[in-house]
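Figure 3 (text version): structure tokens given as input.
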């Protein structure tokens, strides 16, 4: 047996060091800064600051996703073919972040300087800069999904990635959601240029720091010996093979639906216009409710992070996702009922935390805190859970076909992520236009007839339907905890056989089931 084969046997389970598990998921935090900075505000910026038509500023964000059907496969293939001095993933993480930083600085800081007499140029700049940003976003966010495959394949460690991935997301997304209302109250409302001149540089600085830490986290693992079962050469997968991969990888199909459901629920329910309508227009106290309710949601998420890890380690990530999405769905039935009871001007059916004489909480608020807190905690802890499951689907693809193509798998999922995120903006705009609003609601927007029904649909019903789609998709998802252990054992045995001189085809035929795998790999 060759030395390389012996080494492969001793490294049949690839485990990450503690600092790697903590730092690399911060890449998700870095991109989630832009998730808030761009996808939560870009339509409001285009409509309120640049003066673009609301229909254009919102529908264009979704329409541009048609371009992703072309660009994402190309970027995925580029990642899979890259294996140079600086690794496979680090170059795309760094380049993607730089592209996003430059495009957003130009968009938010310079385009408002274009005179109104040249409105056509504002439209052109808005579209071009958004398209450039999308390319950078695909570069970096795809690495979060595909880089996990080299970080660890230990079924006990991958659920830990979910925790740190969610923490990273919380740092990036939470920082922006926390800073935004503070900047708004001191600088200007969400539809003013001054607001974006402050928020954009702060967000970019946070994202750059998180990216640097993520690069450190994956540095040691981003090398050929961790690339699939062949490892020494980059996969030459054609872009045209995308469709065949999707058709053959049934778990990935279902995960894309589940991921879309989780992302849609998060994107719409946390959309700034929806929250402005709920806490500002309906409840009449945006400044007094937004931050406390956001902190409540994050605080309630903490115990669920730990519960999802425990469930994932014992029963697999599929079981964990199903369990807590189901809990979120049940809790949001309570939130839905409370919003149906809301009556304008009736203090008994209105959220209230602080009054003129201090603390002022009614039964309606207590019930809302319970249902919303538990529901938000459960669904926020699962919102990014499909991300580490992409690594399972990538390992399954290696098990199924012998191909190590994390870039393609990552961009497949990224495409769904971006499509759903941008769709949320369009859905919100179409919903508010149905009640006659010409501009997206801001914190000071007065209540308009029918706004309560718009909030009910956007804040509750659409997320609940998205969670139902997630649960239906997961029913036929076959990559359970036990199945993943089998897949990792078979892949490890094949890798050792290839290192010992066997061809890929020989190794694939030699080890097809767990019964054929030597004991040291089980």
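Below: residues designed for each position.
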């Amino acid at each position: 047996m060759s030395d390389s084969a012996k080494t492969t046997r001793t490294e049949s389970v690839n485990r990450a060091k503690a600092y790697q598990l903590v730092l690399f998921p911060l890449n998700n935090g870095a991109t989630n800064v832009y998730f808030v900075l761009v996808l939560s505000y870009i339509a409001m910026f285009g409509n309120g600051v640049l003066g673009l038509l609301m229909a254009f500023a919102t529908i264009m964000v979704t329409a541009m996703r048609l371009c992703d059907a072309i660009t994402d496969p190309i970027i995925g293939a580029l990642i899979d073919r890259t294996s140079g001095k600086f690794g496979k993933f680090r170059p795309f993480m760094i380049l993607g972040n730089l592209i996003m930083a430059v495009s957003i600085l130009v968009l938010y800081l310079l385009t408002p300087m274009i005179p109104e007499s040249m409105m056509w140029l504002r439209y052109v700049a808005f579209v071009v800069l958004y398209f450039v940003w999308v390319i950078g976003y695909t570069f970096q966010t795809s690495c979060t999904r595909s880089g996990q495959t080299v970080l660890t394949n230990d079924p006990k460690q991958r659920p830990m990635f979910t925790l740190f991935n969610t923490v990273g997301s919380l740092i990036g997304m939470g920082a922006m959601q926390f800073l935004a209302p503070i900047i708004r109250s001191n600088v200007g409302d969400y539809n003013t240029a001054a607001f974006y001149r402050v928020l954009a540089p702060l967000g970019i600085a946070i994202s750059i720091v998180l990216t640097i830490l993520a690069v450190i986290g994956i540095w040691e693992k981003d090398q050929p010996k961790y690339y699939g079962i062949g490892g020494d050469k980059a996969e030459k997968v054609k872009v045209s093979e995308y469709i065949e991969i999707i058709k053959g990888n049934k778990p990935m199909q279902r995960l894309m639906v589940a991921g879309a459901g989780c992302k849609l629920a998060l994107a719409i329910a946390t959309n700034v216009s929806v929250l402005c309508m709920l806490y500002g227009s309906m409840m009449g106290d945006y400044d007094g409710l937004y931050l406390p309710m956001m902190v409540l949601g994050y605080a309630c998420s903490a115990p669920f992070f730990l519960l999802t890890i425990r469930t994932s380690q014992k029963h697999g990530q599929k079981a964990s996702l199903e369990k807590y999405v189901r809990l979120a769905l049940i809790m949001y039935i309570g939130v839905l009922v409370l919003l149906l009871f809301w009556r304008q001007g009736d203090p008994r059916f209105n959220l209230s935390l602080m009054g003129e004489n201090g603390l002022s909480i009614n039964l309606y608020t207590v019930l809302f805190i319970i249902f919303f807190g538990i529901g938000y905690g459960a669904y926020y802890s699962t919102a990014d859970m499909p991300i580490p499951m992409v690594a399972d689907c990538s390992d399954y693809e290696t098990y199924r076909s012998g191909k190590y193509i994390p870039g393609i798998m990552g961009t497949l999922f990224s495409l769904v992520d971006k499509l759903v995120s941008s769709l949320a903006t369009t859905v919100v705009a179409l919903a508010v236009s149905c009640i006659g609003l010409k501009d997206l609601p801001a914190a000071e927007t007065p209540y308009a007839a029918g706004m309560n029904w718009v909030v009910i649909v956007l804040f509750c019903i659409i997320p609940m339907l998205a969670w139902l789609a997630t649960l239906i998709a997961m029913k036929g998802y076959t990559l359970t905890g036990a199945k993943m252990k089998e897949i990792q054992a078979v892949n490890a045995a094949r890798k050792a056989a290839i290192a010992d001189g066997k061809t890929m085809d020989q190794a694939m035929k030699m080890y097809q089931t767990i019964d054929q795998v030597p004991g040291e790999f089980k």
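The mean pLDDT is 84.
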